[in-house]
Amino acid sequence: MARPKIFLLITFLLISSFTIAMAGYNIVDFGAKSDGRTDSAKAFLSAWNAACKANKPAMVYVPPGRFKYVEGLSIYGGTLDGRGQALWACKMAGRSCPVGATALTISQGENVLVSGIKILNSQNFQMSIFGSTGVTVERATITAPDESPNTDGIHVQMSSFVTIKDSTMTTGDDCISMGAGSTNVWIEKINCGPGHGISIGSLGLSGDDEGVQNVTVKSAIFTGTQNGLRVKTWAKPYKGMVKGVTFQNAVMKNVQNPIVIDQNYCPSQKNCPNESSGIKISQVKFDDVQGSSATPVAVKFDCSRSNPCTGIELKDIKLRYQNKRAQAFCKNARGTAMGIVEPPSCL
Ligand SMILES: *[C@@H]1O[C@H](CO)[C@@H](O)[C@H](O)[C@H]1NC(C)=O
Ligand SMILES: *[C@@H]1O[C@H](CO)[C@@H](O)[C@H](O)[C@H]1NC(C)=O
Which of these, 83, 134, 276, 303, could form a disulfide with 111 (CB 3.0-4.6 Å)? Predict the structure, then answer.
């Protein structure tokens, strides 16, 4: 695959409204050009330095456009408040509303570090990593209410060598979601909840998808989430694959679906495709998953009729429902179980 052109697009959505009391530093006044080609790094740094020297509250203003095309960017600290409440209300009322902005997007970046950022109440995804290589997000705190629509914590797509660690996410959707073309992803020490868990997918909604490969999720704690560790694909014939996934050392606290592969994904339960998923899922390992399920079925593998799941591995699983034995459900799923596995494996 051709190496993506190295540039980085950062969208700060919150800086769109000026407060009169603030000193504004428009990057364009410092020489930035929004033509999508000119390197505006110097202008950013000059505006930043000027704002830091101001003797009253200051704001660096980035007008709409494409400015920054660099590799090797580090972002330390900072708070992004997406003020999504009005847009969520519109969406929840079922009116037709804009999709909404993502608080921070790293697009076509290389060697990017985001350390200690706080993101809250984004209109849509809180953070998105797209078409990038070598992105590390550490010590992030991402917060949106339980009922806020589509506020995924971090969405990864068409990206490789992505690390997300030591972070806490409270969201209305997936804490972390990995879409098509997520490869070599390492996720470690995550607190998730409320939210919809850590998910691969959804895949296969509107066309063939680039595969998801070599994903590790290690040491995650899920509290009151809808799902824990999940792979989801639509029941449509579009092709793709999920291969080489390790979910290791997870704690579930009252999670509705702690372990789930769902190849009939259809969240609205309306006009569901009801075909057979063309996404092939293989080599997915669940190792050391403990805690409580909020529903009787703690382990669910609902795989594709035409592409059964293969090489599923369960090892040292201990999940209970209301302190009683929980159940496991398998359909079109093949694999092995090792060590203590509760509920008993149906593979
Ligand atoms: C899998 O991804 C990790 C990074 O998450 C990387 O260190 C490792 O080399 C990759 N393994 C393979 C076989 O590509
Ligand atoms: C889905 O398809 C199967 C097999 O074609 C059929 O038996 C079932 O009734 C369908 N379900 C729905 C909800 O349409």
Answer: 134
